[in-house]
Amino acid sequence: MRSRIRGGVLLAGMAAAAIAVAGCGSSNTSATSAAPAFCSSLTTLKSSVKALPTTDIIKNGTNALKTATDTVVKNANAVVDAAKHDFSNETAAITTSVDALQKTAKDLQQNATPAMAAQAVGNVGAVATAVKNFASSASSKCD
């Protein structure tokens, strides 16, 4: 029963964080041919962050969160690699927040506690904020 409650709290927190990402960037999701490579990578990253709340850790266990986090890490690395010279502060924030989420997801696999679940929710929120801030800064290049 406690596992279901923790899972529900984790999913609710991750959903709130992903909603924040959903509101970021322009409504034009197609990058023009003149847009930098990170624009399409950003679209993919936003999608993977939005998908985190659909990770059913109650049904699929903490491995599902780890798998979803690994996808976010891969997509974040693509954005960071392509944009770090133009947006060093924003990409550093993405890297820091994604690294923290990755560590927490790994730790949850080993020891799922309410405190760790709360930390995961906070980490998802930090990733969502970092991605939102990057999207806002990069919007003039991606529109």
**What is the number of strand segments?**
0
Helical fraction: over 70%
End-to-end C-alpha gap: 47 Å
Unreliable stretches (pLDDT < 50, length at least 5) are 22-32
Q: What's the pLDDT, averaged over the residues?
A: 83
Radius of gyration: 15 Å
CATH architecture: Up-down Bundle
Can you count the helices? 6
Task: Tell me what the structure shows.
The chain starts with a helix and ends with a helix. With 143 residues, the protein is an all-alpha fold. The chain has one domain: Four Helix Bundle (Hemerythrin (Met), subunit A) (Up-down Bundle). It is elongated, with a radius of gyration of 15 Å. The longest helix is centred in the C-terminal third of the chain and has 29 residues. Helix 5 runs antiparallel to helix 6. About 8% of the residues have low confidence.
Topology diagram in text:
Layout lengths: L1 H21 L14 H15 L5 H4 L1 H22 L4 H23 L3 H29 L1
Helix pairs in contact: 1-2, 1-6, 2-4, 2-6, 4-5, 5-6
What is shown here, in short?
With 143 residues, this protein is an all-alpha fold. The protein contains six helices and no strands. It starts with a helix and ends with a helix.
